[in-house]
Amino acid sequence: VIGIEILTIGTEIVGGTIPDTNFLFLARGLAARGLRCRWHTAVPDDRETLAAALQTALGRATVIVTSGGLGPTPDDITRKVVATVLKRQLVLREDVVQLLQDRFARTGRAAPPNIQAQALVPFGCDLIENELGSAPGLRLQTEEGRILYALPGVPHELERMAERIVLPEISSLIAGTRIAERNLRTVGVPESVLSERLAGLAPPGGAIAFLPHLGHVDVRLSVEGQTHANDAILDRLTAEATERIGDAVYGKGSEELEEVVGGALMERGWHIAVAESLTGGALGARIVRVPGASRYYLGDVVAYDNGAKTSILGVPEAWIRDHGAVSGPVAEAMAHGVRERFAADVGVSTTGIAGPDGGSEDKPVGLVYFGICWPGGRISVRRQLLGERSQVIARSVTTALDLVRRVAGGLTVT
Ligand code: ATP
Ligand code: MG
Question: Taking the model in full, what pTM does it have?
Fold first, then answer.
């Protein structure tokens, strides 16, 4: 079995001071080549801990990539620990001394004495050119045939070396099967329901993963096999999954719901206006993330206060008094009002209780009404959304966008 391990070295990494972007870069680079990182280990700049982690990695992985600790300072221990663990001599490499001296010469400064330390390299390493920094990377092969790459920790140096040399090498080293992936984006159906609908669908060597976000879930379909066969299998899998999930699928890849909504509105030649209470402008803000939204988006009224709902949107005062501001009739009147005032084709509204306070027995926190008024009708929709304030707001925005997607796409709205 083939296994790739990424070992990131740095006290700042395990301490949570800086995010481990080197790992992300390497893992995504592998994924983009149809390969998967099997183990990810992070250790502080500590000899014993690194030695133990390296020992473990060498015992299980066929390819190991390390990040960090190649510099000249005493906390840079990678070269020494690799030498110790593999029982190899540290040798002073004249070619590395030369590289470092040349680099200093180009900056017009004299090389400091500690470049000698940086030129001490475990016996039998190949150098990987570092175009953007001083420490070259190292490649070595163990007696058991495992390959170890040691790269510097500075992100732009590591990224350049990985992209140009290390990732292509690993890719050609590991011949044969590849992982191919597709992503389906869904909205309005919980993860558990999706998983039931797709039960038993994954083919041998295939997998289905669910990645929940606020109000929407990504369904990641993947297969592992010969590159040329993967596409056909994924085509079939994607078609079947789409069929089973139904119209909750709004897009694929990294398509955003607001983009899909914009596309659907333009297809109809419809313009939209928005009336917001609990979302406080977040719905409009999401719509205008899409470049060119002015082709279908007319504007937003944030009517947080009841008086504003009446005076600006024309919601009858009596309705607010009789049903409450958080109610179906008020949501519908808000949508109707904003549609009239902007002379839009579609008006959509949000009104609800974001919390943490303001809930009651019959109107708990997370209760949200949406109104939508379009050439085909006008309705209100009631949803009980979960989460704390910011989550209720985010889910409300997604739900409102989905309503628009549904009316513009001629889908059922409930
Ligand atoms: P240098 O020659 O600069 O000392 P190095 O190979 O010794 O390079 P480190 O000292 O471990 O690398 O890290 C250099 C800098 O790179 C750190 O200060 C940190 O900001 C950044 N860095 C290190 N590891 C990571 C990582 N895994 N992800 C993101 N940034 C990192
Ligand atoms: Mg360093």
Answer: 0.82
